[in-house]
Amino acid sequence: MVSRRTFSTGLAAGAVSSALALPAAAKAPYRGPNVILVRFGGGVRRAETIKRSGTHAPFLLHRFASRGVLIPDMRIEQLEGAATSHAEGTINILTGRYLAYADRGSSFLEDRLEPTHPTLFEYVREAFALEPHEALLINGEDRPQEEYLVAGATGHRSLTLRAEMLSLHRFKLHKFARILAERKLGEDELLRARQDYDDLLSRAPPGERQEPSPAVASFWDRWREDFGDSGLVNPRGDALLTEIAIRAMRELRPRLMMINYQDTDYVHWGNSSHYTRAISIIDKGLEQIVATADADDFYRGNTVFVVVPDCGRDANSLMDIPFQHHFNTRSAHEIWALIAGPGIVKARVLDRTADQSAIAATIGAVMGFKAKQAEGTALAELLT
Ligand SMILES: [Zn+2]
């Protein structure tokens, strides 16, 4: 364990962490199935996803669901004190607990929640000899607040166990670091690059390691070769997350990867077609990622998919701006899940209520570790 004092003085994280965690060689190699965890949106309702009459996710519902178990009545059971929102729901999924987060606080960016308990990434890297890039979190286009999902100043984690994160924010950090090291640009452009780099650094969790692992640095170098420095060539929004996820599968071979889709949340601006179109883009992304797995020896027949939203959305269509999720309404607690892959029952619909906090323990059962501080229990009836 890293004490708070060690952590805050621990910018020399490599030196600190190597003394704290078991060396990788002392751990068992990972031989279980790969797990791809898809956060299906920044809040979606059942009505537009898993209801036959209203779905905008035809791949999910009509083609992929038969490969596993659909859980139509998953809920965020915690009512007291729980916010039904994106970072909160993501941390529920990752820790297997409710309210396992603390606000890191900031005057200019909200929603800087970090987990107060271990996440799936730490559990799996604690149990098995996995490199940082083998436990991956793929985050939204420009949401540095999501950096906090793998941050931790509370002393429960060591830097040797956290997830490696891929996002456009991370790419830009890497790009500007390279530009500054290469010194090929004129002085004015270098000065601007320095300012942009410092601005990005100021948005990241203070004291956290910013440099990617060598494998991820090479990943971003290849990304930069293909898409350049302008940011105008690569896909945008949730399609960008799909592109990063597929390239990561091919180049980094993650054993546990979570993709945080989010663009359904543009409905906060009031246009419901943004919401339904975003669902279909996530559905398309899921289809592409499944197809990538099916076409790759490393993933084919050896990958469990867990698809679950972070939160639901309000059902009151009379609101000025429908589809909100901040008012703790029943519908905002009503989600679903789909789990499919080797070792999972096929073509079944779970006919009971399940809890979002069960996801972490279930993934632990699939991968062969115990999510010790999770409150939810594994959905044992899904396992063959
Ligand atoms: Zn939102």
Task: Walk me through what this model shows.
This protein is α/β, with parallel strands linked by helices. The chain has one domain: 3-Layer(aba) Sandwich (Alkaline Phosphatase, subunit A). Helix content is 35%, strand content 13%. The chain has twelve helices and eleven strands. The strands form two sheets. Strands 1, 2, 5, 6, 7, 8, 9, 10 and 11 form a nine-stranded mixed beta sheet that branches. Helix 3 crosses helix 10 and helix 6 packs antiparallel against helix 7. The radius of gyration is 20 Å and the shape is globular. Bound molecules: zinc ion. Zinc ion (ZN) binds next to loops.
Shape: globular
Whole-number tally of structural domains:
1
Q: What is the second-level CATH architecture?
A: 3-Layer(aba) Sandwich
CATH topology: Alkaline Phosphatase, subunit A
Average predicted local confidence, pLDDT: 87
Low-pLDDT residue spans: 1-20
How would a textbook summarize the main sheet? 9 strands, mixed
* Class from helix and strand fractions: alpha/beta
